Write a sequence for this structure.
């Protein structure tokens, strides 16, 4: 499966952006899809994930209440709605998909497929 992330851009603090992750080659049917981000000089970190089978969502504390991960019914697109953006949210955002059934949603090494990343820049 190939993942294509899009929707990044430049936004002022307090603003909103919606990222999209489109899968080609196959639809999501099991496992999970996650959003990760990597700021300059920092390690890649998890942001949110969604269990594809039951739709349960997971968020890291720093984005709870501000970001929402969702999916479409067709099974090939995952969104990350970001609100109340802060300069610390500035990073390249990646979507990823994993096929295993473990609860390790925030562990980068368990993800099998990665998109190319989309830049999000939040100005103060």
């Amino acid at each position: 499966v190939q993942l294509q992330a899009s929707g990044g851009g430049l936004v002022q603090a307090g603003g909103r952006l919606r990222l999209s992750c489109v899968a080609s080659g196959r639809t999501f049917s099991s496992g999970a899809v996650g959003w990760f981000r990597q700021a300059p000089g920092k390690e890649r970190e998890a942001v949110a994930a969604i269990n594809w089978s039951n739709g349960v969502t997971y968020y890291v504390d720093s984005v709870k209440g501000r970001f929402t991960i969702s999916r479409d019914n067709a099974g090939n697109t995952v969104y990350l709605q970001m609100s109340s953006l802060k300069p610390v949210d500035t990073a390249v955002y990646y979507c990823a998909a994993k096929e295993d059934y473990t609860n390790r949603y925030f562990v980068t090494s368990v993800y099998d497929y990665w998109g190319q990343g989309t830049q999000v820049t939040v100005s103060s």
